[in-house]
Amino acid sequence: MHVFSIPLRVYIEDTDAGGIVYYVNYLKYMERSRTEFLRSLGYHKPAILDGGMLLVVHSAQINYRRSARLDDQLQVTAQIEKLARTNVEFKQQVLRGSELLCEGLIRIACVDATSMKPSAIPTDMHRQLDQFFHSQTEKS
Length: 140
What we know:
Keywords: Hydrolase. By secondary structure, this protein is α+β, with helices and mostly antiparallel strands. The chain has a single domain, classed as Roll (Thiol Ester Dehydrase, Chain A). The protein is built from 2 helices and 6 strands; from the N terminus they run E-H-E-E-E-E-E-H. The chain has helices spanning about 25-40, 125-140; strands at about 5-10, 50, 55-65, 75-85, 85-95, 100-110. The chain has a 6-stranded antiparallel β-sheet with strand order 1-4-5-6-3-2. The longest helix is centred in the N-terminal third of the chain and has 17 residues, at about 25-40.
């Protein structure tokens, strides 16, 4: 299965007083992975699209399983779970080696920057996302 992934190290700024990653930072890690995924498709400012469109988080479901700690080396994945005309849903995981620490289902919506109403994902981007989505399912 084709899954996008980035390496990430846990720094002191990511942790609470006990040296454990603060829960909201897992969402930040997932954001970085999605951003780098879109950069890999050629979108250098992925949240701001041509034509006055924005990509925004519509919803997030997060399950925390284990704690990451200071100096851990992590892998953060981004895999397309569903693709629609106006949104894309990513299944994401934060791993330490093969150990699953956190997983999430994040829906990203395309909206008009002025009205903030749903808008179709630009054709070229939708095509690239669709190709990636199908490359995932063909290899599974």
